[in-house]
Design brief:
With 81 residues, the chain is mostly beta strands. The chain has one domain. It is 7% helix and 27% strand. The strands form three sheets. Strands 1-4-7-9 form a four-stranded parallel β-sheet, with no helix packed on it. The chain starts with a helix and ends in a 5-residue tail after the last strand.
Length: 81
């Protein structure tokens, strides 16, 4: 992905792209990038310097640590109450 990003001059460094979703009560830190067609569920806390690539799904998690890169994948974590 780094090679593709370096060749693509239109690559955004931070922000939320169109056709993506951020759930209720979710938050994110500085330098956050959510690519198109990605989903972040309710009550998700995302740290700083996080990039979520296209077609990713993140839900029902407490916190993502800083400086993580996520490629298209499904990440499900069940939290016991």
């Amino acid at each position: 992905m780094e090679l593709y990003a370096s060749m693509n001059g239109n690559q955004k460094t931070s922000g939320v792209e169109p056709n993506s979703h951020i759930g209720k009560n979710s938050s994110y830190g500085e330098n956050f990038h959510l690519s198109s067609f990605s989903y972040v569920g309710d009550n998700v806390k995302i740290g700083t310097n996080v990039t979520i690539y296209p077609n990713s799904f993140i839900a029902i998690i407490q916190r993502l640590v800083t400086t993580q890169l996520f490629t298209p994948t499904f990440l499900f974590i069940t939290i016991a109450k």
